[in-house]
Predict the 3D structure of the following.
Amino acid sequence: MSNRLLKLFFIRLVAATTCLLVLPSTGWSAPEEIPEPFPQSTLENTVGIDSSGHLVLFSPVREVNNEIRSETMARLPVEGEGRLYQVNRDSSRQKARDHYLGQLRQRNAQILFECSGIRCGRSNVWANQIFDQSVLLGRDATQDYLVAGTVTEDGARWLTLIYTVTRGNLREYVWVEHLRVESGATIPGFGSVSSRIAGPIVVPWQGGVTYRFDWQATDRRRLNDLAREEGTVVVLVGYSVLETDESFNDAMDRARAATESLSELLSKTGVSRSQQETIVVGPAGVFSEPDRQGDRVEVVVISR
């Protein structure tokens, strides 16, 4: 692939980043394992799930004449479990959600749908009609939901559902479902991102003449493992924040210098320059995800 075509590809890929997930700095766990619990929470209940038609929603929920309505939903043959956690008072459901997102990102999961607040629908429907956990009944404005898909090395497909809510008494809860989907079942929206693409790994940076990169050893090992495969392309996408009184060109130059510095560092640790490509976005890339803010380089690995 030529440099020009590769850069055009990544411009389009960046524009569709809601389908790509960040590899975080949390501990790694296998996709078939239920995500590790949020440390500042207490397990309240565990439910085994073994169903030929388990309801999973991929769009906001409505209730019409006591019937669940959603533009995209499926009844899937699954087995797995659901877990209910109460979040400690000195923490928050937002931190819990970020904890689970971190694990999903490390598994290179694909977010199939997510929503927050009243855009999700009525909390009453999620609690009683979908999850059958009345304790999840809370405020419509203080809830969020996501469903993510992961494929293991043996081709098995797993769905992970995360729902968090704040109740009227201000207690906060997390409901986690981790489900293995039977072979042959159709999962809406799953598979639209190529399994050849891993990442991005988000690497925050600081500095000017010299640069310090804030990433964990687990991320570095993961990158080196992925890059060992013959024909793999490692793409470094550089971002910067447009500072007060800073010109666009200056912000681009900062991002370019940091990206080149990380490229040089990678070349010294086993990722050859010949398999690297760099793209500088600077302040032109704007994302809503909290992990994708600030001065950073995002590393994406494409296998042959």
